[in-house]
Amino acid sequence: MQTTVLSADVGGSHITAAVIHPVTQSIVDDTLIRKKIDAHASASTILEAWTCALIEAQEASGKQCTDLAVSMPGPFDYENGISLIKGMNKYEALYGFNVKEVFAKRVKLPPSRVRFLNDAEAFLRGEIIGSNLAEKSQVLGLTMGTGLGTAFFNSGVVKDLNLGSSRFLDGIAEDYISTRGLLTYYRSLGGAGIDDVKSLAEVISGDRKAKETMAQLAHWLADFLLIHLTALKPDAVIIGGNISKAYHLFLPEVVERLAAQKILVPIKVAMMGEQAALLGAASLINS
């Protein structure tokens, strides 16, 4: 029987699901489903929303899929499918839950056919598949959104680095380079009425506090990269996630600050969007 993969990307505020074509490694037409998620809701509410997206995508394809692959933020027991997310301002209610068993039951698959992959790793795998980045022997991938994900591609292998949890300033990198970090900084300047980075970017021309916040992001990101680029020595860096959509407001300054330290690694903005994590997770089935 031909393998058909139902793939999903779980973010801090959404889930996206789709069926992936086994030959073209592309999303099957009309199967892409996206739902907003309240990451602070009860476990039953979150799981119901997640599984509804999976079921809708599978039903849109008109057939039962043979496998389920899920891009999931950490900390998470990826082998056993158990959520270990705690103290991350999201999905606290799911701590200790066996998500694999719930998904397997709802999409009617044996648990052995349900697999999970770190979201940063899935993102980078998908970008490698969908672009010419395979020409680069070493690529550092960053996903900047609700949290900060990091992964490294080295000669055909992608690994999660978990640098978002590395020491940075007075905490960890994710405390600063994330939606949470930016909004906290914006509010510390006296800003109000903004709940996401998209809105922050939209008011930047008339809001000095928003402009200063994006400039601070450039400083933080450059300092973070200066710490790790020297050790990792990638041939390229690729940035994705919702914050990367506002790249024109911070990336030029990041590049300038790195160049001042003679760091000339090219930084690319992700081209695949949310499809990257879907394709990357699905690629796990045939790896």
Rg from Cα: 19 Å
CA(first)-CA(last) distance = 18 Å
Side by side, the strands of the main sheet go 3-2-1-4-7
Strand tally? 14
Tell me about the largest β-sheet. 5 strands, mixed
CATH fold field value of the largest domain: Nucleotidyltransferase, domain 5
Helical amount among residues, as a percent range? 25-40%
Verbal overview:
With 287 residues, the protein is of the alpha/beta class. The chain folds into two domains: 5-122 and 275-283, ATPase, nucleotide binding domain (Nucleotidyltransferase, domain 5); 135-269, 2-Layer Sandwich (Nucleotidyltransferase, domain 5), CATH 3.30.420. Helix content is 35%, strand content 22%. The protein is built from eight helices and 14 strands. The protein has a five-stranded mixed sheet with strand order 3-2-1-4-7, sandwiched between helices. The protein has a five-stranded mixed sheet with strand order 10-9-8-13-14, covered by helices on one side. Strand 13 (236-240), helix 7 and strand 14 (267-269) form a beta-alpha-beta unit. The protein is globular. The two termini are 18 Å apart. The model has no long low-confidence stretch (mean pLDDT 92). Belongs to the ROK (NagC/XylR) family. This is ROK family protein. It comes from Olivibacter oleidegradans.
